[in-house]
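#onboarding

Welcome to the new folks! Below is a worked example of what a typical request in this channel looks like: someone posts a single protein sequence, and someone else replies with the predicted structure as tokens. Don't worry about understanding the tokens yet, we'll cover that in week two.

Example request:
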Amino acid sequence: MLVFYLTALETEAQKRKFESVYITYYPMMLKTAISILKDQTLAEDAVHETFLQILGEIDTLRIENPHQLKAYLYLLTRERTIDFLRRWKRRKEVLPLPDEPWEEDNAPEPEELVLTRLQLEQAIEVLTDMPEIYRRALTLRVKGYSIKEIAGLLHCSEANVKVRIHRARALLLKTFSE
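Example response:
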């Protein structure tokens, strides 16, 4: 997962700083999220959201004092996890799971979902070379954020987010259609 975060950063200094924070504090952050959510998978998702926020503020993140940084990351993880829990509860209330199994299974076959190694390498290369404004918007959208949430995170309008995502997808499609 660290590789995907690092591709969103521009400079080597930012990458080293983020990598240091990730390696040092990920276990503590995950433990914090698990203590709130009581579920490993959901906790990983909540910590992921926390790291996405850290990506946005990596230039202003102060890492000189490890005690202050640990306290800040604990509080940030706790806040993001509680927000995640609230959103998760709302989703469960809005979309209750059916008691009976589905009659038809329209799910695609696993073979259809798996990218070949070459396609994956091409996608990573395109994402790496893609302008940052497109890459960030597309990455957040793929991770399940709504257009409105992405606009808030990137500090731009919803229309702008839609354009960025459209252009990023066009760049990816161009690569795979060649």
